[in-house]
Structure formats: structure tokens, C-alpha cells
Design brief:
- It contains 16 helices and no strands.
- With 453 residues, it is mainly α.
- The N terminus is likely disordered.
Length: 453
């Protein structure tokens, strides 16, 4: 690793050429260099996707009775997984929009696949509420539309807010991702040798020619969508948090939930970025484009957002004690020392003990350490969502209404299958589209070469 690649302000090597950057990234979709690794991962993801389809077929045939949900725990793994998947998407939008608007150049090697991660994660999340309805064929009643009964959605329900928040977030994220892809699709089109590839990428690039006028209009639109997407990062997970905070359930009814959820989602999203960056770097041998500097920046973001999330844990306990509400205090005691203690302390150890490694520079720059810590945080954040959802519902105000909850095999199968759905979508993206932004890397190379000349 050269000094230039690791120096502050220089995210990649300064001696690269513009054509070399286009060739290295544009080669991936046209002359796929890692067929065995890709096919192995795709086979595993496809098997999990088949499990997802089977789980959905069983659910539609038998109803939600095949799940372990009951009274009082009407929200089980399905809602846990919605919040978990939504959290994955936040870092993609944050990296792409906030760092774009602040001019941080280190985002250029990470933003493309982080944006794809956002779109695919939101798809996985949005399917869960539809499946949880019990009658998924009536999902369109959550969307306002003219009808003979003159009926509309219940706008006062946080569930309805979630419909609008997730649908708007998905639309804006997909538009932002696609608009960023257009110049790179044209670059791949110009390098394609087969007629089919030229037609495919040409149609996807919408006739992009790269004129000065087109670039000026493109940049204006890109910044406009970025400015619109940035507040959605806050609004989407705040809406999800309000589903709980608006209900008078011990352990949920607190104003700290919206910021607590947003910070946790950003933390979790960066963990998944660390996993994907390490995997792509190894699979496609992109060590000179996803450098140790990029990995170090992700490690710093993980450490910072993780410590802020730890502060949210502390404030949640302080709020339970300071409220002087016996039910709130009992819920906190149940999580700390009761039946939910394994999940609570598991989340604390996996989320916060693991990231302490990043106080040391050598661990922040290690892709293997980042990959393992990312997996630990992903598991820890799932445990957090699980005990937050289930512990409050299983023990509310009356001991006569207490009840246990155990996820059924079909809930676990659906969760594993949703990981397969995400994996298949992401692997297809890595196979057929540029995983790193070509034109933004070229801009960085141009600026570095100008500095050196």
C-alpha cells in the first residue's frame, strides 16, 4: 500500500490513469472476473430465496397461525425484522447524501454499493408488513385511492405513517441510485463488445452523451434529490419508532425512541457497509480502489455512531428510573436481570464491546476485523430489536395478560429467506452494474493528477 493511498485527503493512488479506472471498474459487468466466487455466493443466496418463497406460500395457504405470534405478543419476528432491515438502509443514504453535500471525497468508493444496499434492504423491509397483515391481498387499502365505499386509510395511525414513510423513502432512494448510475451505464455501454450488451446498457443510460449541458443538469438534479433524501433518513426510522412510542406499553412509551432508533440504524447501516466493502474488496480484488483509508473511515464512523447508540441505551435506563413508573422500572429490570437478560447483554457485548477495537489504528485498517465486527454488530442490533419488541408485549400491566412468545420454524425460515432475497438482489447488482462509481473515481484521479503536475 503506497503512502499516497493512505494519506489524509487522498482516498486512492495518485498515479492512476482515467482510462485505467474506467477499464478496471467497467470490466466487472462485461468480463466478469470472479465467476467461481460469485456463483458460490449466488447458489447459497438462491437457496435461501427458495426458502423465502416456500415460507410465503405456506403463510398464504395456512395464514399467520403458522407463526408463533399470539395474544399478548401480536408483534413477533416480523416486526423485529422490519425495523432491522430498515436500519440497514440508512447508512447508504447517509453516505451518499450527507457526504456528497459536504464534499467528502472518501465516499466515492463506497456510495454506489451502499445506495444499492439501501434499495434492496427497503424492499426486504416493505414486504414484511404486507405479509404480517394476514390478508395480504388487501394491502392496497393502506394506500389512499378512490373507491365506491368512500373509505380511506386511518391517517391518525402510526401504521399509516409507516406506509408513507417507507414508500417515499424507497422511491427517493431508487431515483437517487439510478441517477448516479446513468453516466457509468454509458461508460459500460461504450466499452461493450456484444450487440445485446450495447443495447441493454444504452437503454439503461437513456442516451447519455456526456455533454457539458447534460453534466450541468445532471449535477443539479443529483444534488436536488440528495437534499430531499437526507431528511428522509430521520423521518423513516422516526416513523417506525413512533409505532412503539405512541402506544402506552411499558418499555415503549418514551420520547427517546425516535432519535434512539435513528442513531441505531445509522450504526447498524455502517456495520453492513463494512461487511459489503470487505467482501467486494476481496471478491473483485479492489484493494487499490477500496483502500485501507476507506476501511479506516468506516471504522471511525462505526465507533462514533456506536458510542452514540450506547448513550441511547444509558438514557433509556435512566428514563425508566426517572419516570418513577413501576411498570417501566420492572420492564427495565426484566431486560437487565430477567428473562430477556441474555438478549440484552448479548446486544451490549456484540454492539459496543466489539467496536472498542477501533480505538486502535491497526484494527480500523484491517478488512478482516471490520468484516467480523460488522457481523457482530448486525447480530447485536437484531437482538436489540428483538428484546425491544417482544419484552414489552409479553409483560405489560397485568400479570394475568402475560404470555411467552417463541418464534415458529416458519418465522425463522422467512427471516433466513429474506437474507437470501437481499443476497440475490445484491449479487445481481454486482454482476451486471458498476459496483463503484466510475465517474466519481475519475474526478478524484483527475484532481490528484492536477495536484501532482
Amino acid at each position: 500500500m503506497s503512502d499516497a493511498s493512505t494519506a489524509p485527503g487522498r482516498p486512492i493512488e495518485a498515479d492512476r490513469t482515467l482510462s485505467g479506472v474506467t477499464r478496471e471498474i467497467g470490466t466487472i459487468p462485461l468480463d466478469f472476473p470472479a465467476r467461481r466466487r460469485w456463483w458460490t455466493a449466488f447458489a447459497v443466496a438462491s437457496a435461501l430465496l427458495a426458502l423465502y418463497i416456500l415460507s410465503v406460500v405456506v403463510l398464504f395457504a395456512e395464514g399467520t397461525g403458522v407463526w408463533g405470534i399470539n395474544i399478548p405478543v401480536g408483534w413477533g419476528l416480523a416486526i423485529t425484522n422490519v425495523v432491522w432491515w430498515i436500519g440497514i438502509g440508512h447508512a447508504g443514504t447517509l453516505i451518499s447524501t450527507l457526504l456528497l453535500m459536504t464534499g467528502a471525497v472518501w465516499r466515492t468508493s463506497l456510495n454506489r454499493f451502499a445506495e444499492a444496499m439501501t434499495v434492496f434492504a427497503v424492499i426486504c423491509a416493505a414486504l414484511y408488513p404486507i405479509l404480517h397483515l394476514g390478508r395480504p391481498h388487501f394491502f392496497f387499502w393502506m394506500i389512499p385511492h378512490p373507491n365506491q365505499l368512500a373509505l380511506g386509510p386511518q391517517y391518525r395511525s402510526p401504521l399509516e405513517w409507516d406506509v408513507f414513510a417507507i414508500s417515499v423513502y424507497f422511491t427517493v432512494s431508487a431515483m437517487f441510485w439510478y441517477q448516479g448510475l446513468i453516466p457509468d451505464l454509458a461508460a459500460v455501454r461504450d466499452r461493450a463488445r456484444s450487440r445485446f450488451a450495447r443495447i441493454f446498457y444504452g437503454l439503461a443510460a437513456m442516451g447519455w452523451k456526456g455533454s457539458a449541458t447534460a453534466w450541468a443538469r445532471w449535477r443539479r438534479g443529483y444534488l436536488l434529490i440528495a437534499g430531499f433524501a437526507l431528511p428522509l433518513v430521520v423521518s423513516v426510522h422516526s416513523g417506525v419508532a413512533m409505532l412503539m412510542a405512541a402506544g402506552p406499553i411499558p418499555g415503549w412509551h418514551t420520547t427517546i425512541f425516535p432519535p434512539y432508533f435513528v442513531l441505531g440504524a445509522v450504526f447498524f447501516g455502517f456495520a453492513v457497509v463494512a461487511i459489503l466493502a470487505s467482501a467486494l474488496r476481496w471478491t473483485f480484488e479492489l484493494t487499490d480502489l477500496i483502500t485501507e483509508r476507506h476501511m479506516a473511515m468506516v471504522g471511525i464512523m462505526l465507533l462514533a455512531s456506536g458510542m452514540m447508540t450506547a448513550y441511547g441505551y444509558a438514557m433509556e435506563l435512566f428514563g425508566a428510573w426517572y419516570s418513577a413508573d413501576g411498570f417501566e422500572r420492572q420492564t427495565a429490570v426484566d431486560r437487565l436481570f430477567g428473562p430477556w437478560a441474555p438478549a440484552y447483554w448479548g446486544a451490549v457485548i456484540l454492539n459496543f464491546a466489539s467496536i472498542q477495537l477501533f480505538w486502535l489504528r491497526r484494527f480500523r485498517r484491517s478488512p478482516l476485523v471490520l468484516f467480523l465486527v460488522g457481523l457482530a454488530v448486525a447480530a447485536g442490533m437484531w437482538l436489540e430489536r428483538y428484546f425491544l419488541v417482544v419484552s414489552a408485549l409479553s409483560r405489560d400491566f397485568l400479570s394475568s395478560s402475560w404470555g411467552p412468545y417463541w418464534p415458529s420454524v416458519w418465522e425463522w425460515a422467512l427471516f433466513a429467506g429474506s437474507i437470501g432475497l437481499f443476497g440475490v438482489l445484491f449479487l445481481l447488482f454486482a454482476r451486471f452494474l458498476p459496483v463503484i462509481s466510475i465517474f466519481e473515481i475519475r474526478e478524484v484521479v483527475h484532481d490528484l493528477n492536477e495536484e501532482g503536475s
